[in-house]
Design brief:
CATH topology of the largest domain: Immunoglobulin-like
Number of strands: 7
Number of domains: 2
Structural class: alpha+beta
Radius of gyration: 28 Å
Largest sheet: 4 strands, antiparallel
Order of helices and strands: HHHEEEEEEE
Strand content: 35-45%
Helix content: 10-25%
CATH architecture of the largest domain: Sandwich
CATH superfamily of the largest domain: Immunoglobulins
Length: 169
């Protein structure tokens, strides 16, 4: 079957035809042309429930093709994370430090950026301790570097997890 699709409306009709292929039969030459897809040729061959599906499908498909303004997906962040370094306190307990560097490699400034750092258990992956930093703005190409200090058990092979989010509000 050769189908050439030019518009969103044609996509919705083709999808519905594929769903309802047992109701609508193709012409003898097995080529489907857009003039064969007119609503007036399809509706008489479908029950009323299929008409409802056409309307719902058209609404859903047209919603799927809309795009949001440039803020969504325009940001990307590069992260550089040093391995956690163990330190002893006078009481014998331990804490780990790590240098975190986050760069805005996206387009335009990143607003209301929250960077969450977590000390992760090597066996279970559970978060042992966490620390967050908030930055009102990270300009395009700029980076923010800081050191986190996270509590943990001594002599563990912890990892550092970093999650960066931006609030567009």
């Amino acid at each position: 079957m050769n189908i050439f699709i030019n518009t969103v409306e044609e996509i919705s009709v083709v999808i519905l035809l594929l769903i309802c292929e047992n109701i609508y039969s193709l012409p003898d030459n097995n080529h489907l042309k857009m003039q064969d897809l007119t609503i007036m040729k399809i509706i008489p061959k479908m029950p009323h429930i299929m008409l409802a599906l056409i309307i719902i499908s058209a609404i859903l498909i047209s919603g799927c093709t809309t795009t949001q303004s440039g803020q969504t997906g325009s940001r990307s962040f590069e992260q550089t994370i040093s391995l956690p370094e163990q330190h002893y306190r006078p009481d014998g307990s331990c804490y780990y430090t790590s240098l975190i560097d986050v760069k805005n490699s996206g387009q335009g400034p990143a607003m209301n950026v929250m960077i969450r750092c977590a000390l992760k258990d090597p066996v279970t992956g559970d978060t042992v301790d966490s620390e967050s930093r908030f930055f009102e703005v990270i300009d395009e190409g700029d980076h923010k570097a800081f050191t986190v200090s996270l509590d943990g058990e001594c002599n563990m092979n912890y990892a550092i997890g970093v999650d960066v989010t931006e609030d567009y509000k």
